[in-house]
Amino acid sequence: MITFIRVDDRLIHGQCQTKIIPMNKINRVIGVDDNTANNPMLKRIFEMAAPSGVRVTVHTFEDALTPISKCMVNDKRTLIIARRPSTILKLYERIPDLYKEVNIANIPMENEGFLIRKDIWIDNEQLAAIKKLDELGVNLFFQQFPGDGAENFYWKDVKSKY
Question: 2-146 adopts what CATH topology?
Fold first, then answer.
């Protein structure tokens, strides 16, 4: 079962290992990132980054569709993680029955855009993806990690500003 979907440019890192995975009792992580999946060294680092007992794989977008679909109907508590909301949107377009909540965390400044929250930079492409995810009924919340000291906020509460 898919129990957590996250956007984070760092994919798996310390906060994921110590907070998100244990708090959500995750035992399977599926990374969706073409660049990481196609780079043997990055792929190996990603796959070694999870706590003991947690199976981690990283796939190109197309190759991720099958394992994600399988995890939707099994009892493995699965985290899906990608670098950008636009990748998550493509997943919902291909697998519309995905779990309808997405945590948006670290996104670095790349193009013209704005900070929506500390360390979460939104450019026009990602803003369009967020708006489309909202239209699809996905609950979006912005949080680096549980207990990060900042108040959680949800897209539904701020979308009128954008």
Answer: Fructose Permease (3.40.35)
